[in-house]
Amino acid sequence: MAPGSQPAAPRPDAPGDGGEVIGPPAPGLLLVISAPSGAGKTTLAHRFVAAHPDARFSVSVTTRAPRGTERDGVDYHFVSRARFAELVGQDAFAEWAEVHGQRYGTLRSTVEESLARGQIAVFDIDVQGGAQVKARWPDRTVGALVLPPSMQELERRLRDRSTDPDEAIRRRLAVARAEIERGAAQCDYLIVNDELDLALARLDAVVAHERARLGGAGEGAEAELAARLRRGAVDVRP
Ligand code: ADP
Ligand code: 5GP
């Protein structure tokens, strides 16, 4: 699968009878979901994308090997270190980093396409990667830090997932605390992932709030809507 290619998503609020939608098109949003490994951000990100037709998952490029049921082009674009270096040379990444000894990068094309189409791009990337996306697109980025309800529960989830060797789990737990501290200082929202459905509802609320804020601040969005209402270009009858 070619990195970054996806058709434009239909607007979720588009009426079925072809009538005109009230309001400006939904603004594009970059939703950076960070978390210490094992907190549930991948699960949450995929559930969020499945529930929102105009959301897309930003498929990162990585040098690490696939785990379990992971598929190339769906969970990650799995590449060699040489190919990764080539992509760095082509300036293909919005950001990239070395995490747990492997390289991971966000494709610039994914971000740019999502913004152009007014989509919600969902990023499952580490805290400093999220900070780089925010630095590059400050007005469009919202950072949510997913937290486990406790460190014991984090360890239980990592062991339950059980695709990593013991050594890798110990390493992940060791960096988790630092990631939480750093993430909490940088993110816009904290989302405790105690129960998946509750965490998802919290994420929905965050996105609805941020989109409303962006829409309201859009370039003359209300003025344009008012002009269309006066022209009768928008039908508001029930
Ligand atoms: P991350 O992407 O943060 O490393 P995952 O999404 O892979 O984490 O989740 C880690 C493990 O925890 C997985 O086995 C997942 O099914 C499980 N998990 C995720 N969210 C919850 C939750 N709310 N309650 C219980 N288990 C969860
Ligand atoms: P995992 O190997 O468990 O899938 O991911 C390891 C870490 O790398 C996670 O914290 C994950 O969020 C992060 N990661 C995945 N993709 C990217 C990326 O494109 N950029 C950055 N900076 N981190 C990423």
Produce the secondary structure layout.
Elements: E1 29-34, H1 41-51, E2 55-57, E3 60-62, E4 76-78, H2 81-89, E5 93-99, E6 102-107, H3 108-117, E7 120-124, H4 127-136, E8 141-147, H5 151-161, H6 166-186, E9 189-192, H7 196-217, H8 221-230
Parallel strand pairs: 1-7, 1-8, 2-7, 3-4, 8-9
Antiparallel strand pairs: 3-6, 5-6
Helix pairs in contact: 1-7
Residues 37, 60, 64, 95, 97, 99-100, 104-106, 124-126, 129 line the site of guanosine-5'-monophosphate (5GP).
Structure commentary:
Helix 1 packs across helix 7. The protein has eight helices and nine strands. It has a single domain, classed as P-loop containing nucleotide triphosphate hydrolases (Rossmann fold). Strand 5 (93-99) and strand 6 (102-107) form a beta hairpin. Residues 1-16 have low confidence and may be disordered. It is α/β, with parallel strands linked by helices and 238 residues long. It is globular, with a radius of gyration of 19 Å. The strands form two sheets. Strands 2-7-1-8-9 form a five-stranded parallel sheet, with helices on both faces. A four-stranded mixed sheet has the order 4-3-6-5. The chain binds adenosine-5'-diphosphate (ADP) and guanosine-5'-monophosphate. Adenosine-5'-diphosphate binds next to helix 1 and helix 5.
What percentage of amino acids are in beta strands? 15-25%
Helix share bin: 40-55%
Strand order of the largest sheet: 2-7-1-8-9
CATH architecture annotation: 3-Layer(aba) Sandwich
| Residue runs with pLDDT of under 50 for 5 or more positions | 1-16
Shape annotation: globular
Largest sheet: 5 strands, parallel
State the order of secondary-structure elements, H for helix, E for strand. Answer: EHEEEHEEHEHEHHEHH
Q: Count the strands?
A: 9
In this entry the ligands are: adenosine-5'-diphosphate, guanosine-5'-monophosphate
Indicate the mean pLDDT.
Answer: 85
By DSSP (H or I, 4+ residues per run), the number of helices equals 8
CATH topology description:
Rossmann fold
Q: Which structural class should the secondary elements be placed in?
A: alpha/beta
CATH class: Alpha Beta
